[in-house]
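Cross-check.
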Amino acid sequence: MINNWYFKFLIITPLFILFSCSEIEDSIPQNYNRNNTHDNYVSPYVGIWVGTYSGEVSGTLILNVSNTGSMEVIRTLNGKVEEVYYTGLQEPGGHLNPAPSPKGFALYGSLYAKAGTWNFQNRSGNWDVDKK
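Predicted model, tokenized:
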């Protein structure tokens, strides 16, 4: 009786492992295609956007948008680079991630509208850009 049970165990266990591995192997192409689609994404807002911010303080903005929607923000004041920081877009509407820069400057709005508002400490105003 034990020999019969042991024999069944030796046959069934490898078959179970074989079928389990087959299912994992079948799902690999699906996962690869799903990940590859994300890797091939290109933001419709990719490029350099140049404009101004105005209000209580005025200056120039340069927004450099990468393929993935991450964005370098260069803010100038009186012709000098005031700060460079990195943020991103919230697709698909091109809305800027409202996270403030390390100094506290925050842009709100979208590249679809090419405009928005900004806040910095207790100051605020508007901004607008055009794609270069």
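The beta strands are 47-55, 59-65, 70-77, 80-90, 95-96, 105-110, 115-120, 123-131. The mean pLDDT is 83. Passed to J.P. for a second look.
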